[in-house]
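Title: Request for sanity check on Transcriptional repressor NrdR prediction

Description:
We are preparing a figure and want to confirm that the structure record we downloaded matches what your pipeline produces today. Could someone re-run it with the sequence below and paste the raw structure tokens into this thread? We only need the token string, no images.
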Amino acid sequence: MKCPYCSYEESKVIDSRSADDGERIRRRRECLRCGKRFTTHEVIETVPIIVVKRDKSREVFDRNKLTGGILRACEKRPVSIEQIENMVNDIEAQLQSSLEREITSKQIGELAMDQLKNIDEVSYVRFASVYRQFKDINTFMDELNKLLTEKK
């Protein structure tokens, strides 16, 4: 495992423990060159999920992209990193348990919005505004009205 600080490829495992209900192994490592510690997560390698984007191009599902999008939507909001990790874990688990090996970016966006709606409405609206590409204020207001209707 390459050290994120000095890029040295040798490290020793200091601690290992199960994470995410046994789906992952969290390891604390120490670089043998610089001595700094870092965490890695080990997961079972699975058949990759292919994301079909709006322009019909295809790419392998990237958990980091999903996390980044959710992080941006939750910026300066009372949403913890742990909640975001749980959301991403849940979405990824839903994708993995699906029999589909190709999934549209639209489906992933909908799953993310479902999760965000239950955690923080402002983050939900932020995510939806980018994801649904609101063209004008009316589209934005329509989404807010839907959210208000569902809340009642």
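Thanks, this matches our download. The chain has a mean pLDDT of 89.
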